[in-house]
Design goal:
The longest helix has 17 residues. With 254 residues, the protein is α/β, with parallel strands linked by helices. The chain is elongated, with a radius of gyration of 22 Å. The strands form five sheets. The chain has a five-stranded parallel sheet. The protein has a five-stranded antiparallel sheet with strand order 12-11-10-14-13. Strands 15-16-17 form a three-stranded antiparallel sheet, with no helix packed on it. The chain has seven helices and 17 strands. Helices cover 28% and strands 31% of the residues. β16 and β17 form a beta hairpin.
């Protein structure tokens, strides 16, 4: 059996690889992709596999965009971190889904369901457009409005509107508030960028995400970079990395 995978998170990819081989070590994982663009390009120029695994959300969009660019001739099993009921609609079309974190019993059930079609030559029904649209609507980004932080033995909720900077240092992520207080949070900057309003926040470099409200002044810096002076007292300026400068200017321009 030949399989291809669309998954942009390395831990999830490795877990899926391991589970597939535990289920059946003769499965051949023909190709792995981390973007809609790459899998579309491959499907246009290669024989389609027996089965496709697709993470619903990847870095460059929703996997449904694949179906808009190429006719997928293979059955698809979706993987997702979302538990909302609308995902279950895929089962109506004999298309299964796996909820992250993945586990062997769920994978086995999905593979056995697929096998009933594969071995009998039955045609797996196409995904109905209304199902795709219902899941699209469900997955439309809703921005996070609050973050729970720990202070000593207590928990408190910090409004996103009060956050000036998200900062990553020594594998720890902090928020810095308008009161110039730091709190540790349990998310990476990559995860945070998927949660917050891109109109209000911008990732200026690998270590920092900044709010419009934090900016006091912007100065042209060496090597085509920019220096951001902050409204917060006693905070060092932040540097916009060279590769982010043009996007940062566009973000400022609204």
């Amino acid at each position: 059996m030949k399989v291809i995978i669309l998954e942009d998170e390395q831990p999830a990819l490795q877990q899926l690889r391991d589970l597939l081989l535990r289920y059946d070590d003769t499965i051949e994982i023909t190709a792995v992709f981390d973007s809609v663009k790459d899998i579309v390009s491959w499907l246009r120029s290669n024989p389609h596999p027996d089965l496709v695994f697709m993470d619903i959300q990847v870095a460059d969009g929703l996997c449904f965009e694949v179906f808009e660019h190429v006719q997928v001739k293979s059955p698809v099993i979706f993987t997702t971190a979302y538990q909302e009921y609308a995902i279950r609609a895929f089962k109506v079309n004999s298309i299964d889904y796996l909820l992250k974190p993945l586990n062997l019993p769920e994978l086995k059930a999905a593979m056995e369901k697929f096998g009933r079609h594969y071995h009998t030559g039955a045609v797996v029904p196409a995904i109905r457009e209304e199902i795709i649209q219902s899941v699209r609507k469900m997955l439309e980004k809703t921005c996070k409005t609050r973050f729970v932080v720990k202070t000593g033995e207590h928990l408190r909720s910090v409004s996103t509107s009060d956050i000036h900077i998200f900062l990553s240092q020594d594998k720890t992520t902090y928020i810095n508030t308008a009161e110039n207080r730091n709190f540790i949070i349990d998310y990476s900057l990559d995860q945070i960028m998927q949660m917050i309003d891109g109109e209000q926040f911008f990732r200026i470099n690998r270590q920092s995400i900044i709010s419009r409200d934090a900016i006091s002044d912007i100065v042209v810096y060496s090597s085509s970079r920019l220096k951001i002076k902050l409204k917060l007292a006693n905070r060092e300026p932040l540097i916009v990395s060279r590769d982010k400068v043009n996007d940062f200017k566009s973000w400022l321009d609204g």
